[in-house]
Amino acid sequence: MTVVQLENLRQTYDGRHIAVHQLNLTIPSGQITALLGPSGCGKTTTLKMIAGLLNPTSGRVLFNGRDVTTVPAEQRSAVMAFQNHLLFPYMTVADNVGFGLKMRGISAATIATRVAEMLEQVQLPGYGDRRPRELSGGQQQRIALARALIIEPEVLLLDEPLSNLDAHLRDEMRELILQLQREKELTTVFVTHDQEEAVILADQVGLMFAGKLQQFAPPRDFYDRPRTAEIAQFFGNENLLTGVIQNGRFQLDHSEIELHINHAEQKSAQITIRPEHIELVTPLTPADNHVTAKVTHRLYRGTHTRLQVTIENIPLTVIVNSHVDFPHGAAVSLRLPPEKLWVLA
Ligand SMILES: Nc1ncnc2c1ncn2[C@@H]1O[C@H](COP(=O)(O)OP(=O)(O)OP(=O)(O)O)[C@@H](O)[C@H]1O
Ligand SMILES: [Mg+2]
User: Fold this and answer.
1) Which site from 4, 238, 269, 295 is most exposed, i.e. has the minimal number of CB atoms within 10 Å?
2) Nearest to residue 21, comparing CAs of 178, 159, 209, 282?
3) What three-state secondary structure class fits 143?
4) For residue range 64-112, what is the model confidence (pLDDT) as tens digits?
5) Cβ atoms of 176 and 165 closer than 8 Å
6) Is ligand 1 within 6 A of the CB of residue 42?
7) Whose CA is nearest to atom 11 of ligand 1?
């Protein structure tokens, strides 16, 4: 069981380009943590600093409270499997998988046994004599995982382990990672730019934008309790209302609209509501938190329909049942449930 702590971790390339800013993060032991963010936000850089493959410009990396910042990669109990799984092309699969043990001076006989076990575990028994080029992309990913796990690391670092895989293989690989991680209670950090992947696989998600950690929380929180509008947007929610909260009511700026809200403070605020939390209602009489909206665009998505609407020129997205159909310009009544209105920081 290993807790990984990052303290004021910072990485600058070429002395000026800041790839990672003062990163403070405690990665819990025995769980899967996702580092999520758009391309170039510093995910791989962070992972390399945890692995010991890149010296931080400043700051510290601690494993179970022990400072490992200057400990070389091969002496850390962490192992990283790469973004573009670099198997050694001229080695057999068995030599690739056994590589980490060979570097540690383990006997050939022990290596052979352990390699066979690992190949079983990643469901590729009997593939030891092949070369990497004789494997499919998905099989190569699994061999890369076997090569990482054979040294029995305490911390497993995976850089985009599911990229370059088709949907079916991605599901298989995801299951395999989960199974191996749960079995060994490995502290696992995996990097992805795919929000859905992070949500499905991770216990905790660290969202990064431009080298800065934005929010570290369980996946659900990014939907229900995003810290900022940008975070909400990254998770597919662009709904944003600006106004003033007073006495449990939210008064929209430049508008007559007032909504009940479960928030005691009095302040100017930006609030959000997820598209799937807005309800389509048939109003007989006007009621609390009902608003009238005009449909500006609709997008049929098979399982649901995304409606773009405006309420007094404020754009909102609403997800509704696929079967309901509204022409462009139609007036609809919506309910914004008070308990679903979330006040942004
Ligand atoms: N060796 C390097 N020298 C200079 N700049 C670098 C180097 N490696 C990365 N960078 C820069 O640092 C920033 C972060 O890079 P990093 O590889 O950590 O991003 P990432 O989040 O992993 O992106 P992706 O999702 O595309 O893999 C980027 O702007 C990148 O251009
Ligand atoms: Mg990367």
Assistant:
1) 238
2) 209
3) helix
4) 999 999 999 888 888 888 666 678 999 999 999 999 899 889 999 999 9
5) no
6) yes
7) 19
Q: Which domain holds residue 334?
A: 240-343
User: Is the same domain home to 198 and 227?
Assistant: yes
Same domain, 221 and 319: no
Backbone angles phi, psi at 128, to 5 degrees: -55, -35
Percent above pLDDT 70 for the chain = 99
Q: Where are the beta strands (DSSP E) in the chain?
A: 4-13, 17-27, 32-36, 58-63, 66-67, 78-81, 155-159, 187-192, 204-209, 212-217, 241-246, 249-252, 258-260, 267-272, 279-281, 290-300, 304-311, 314-321, 331-335, 342-343
41 in ligand 1 pocket by Cβ < 6 Å? yes
The domain spanning residue 194 has which CATH number?
Answer: 3.40.50.300
Residues lining ion ligand 2 (Cβ < 5 A) are: 44
pLDDT tens readout for residues 181-205: 998 899 999 999 999 999 999 999 9
Q: Could you tell which of 41, 207, 209 is best to mutate to test the pocket of ligand 1, judged by most ligand atoms within 8 Å of the CB? A: 41
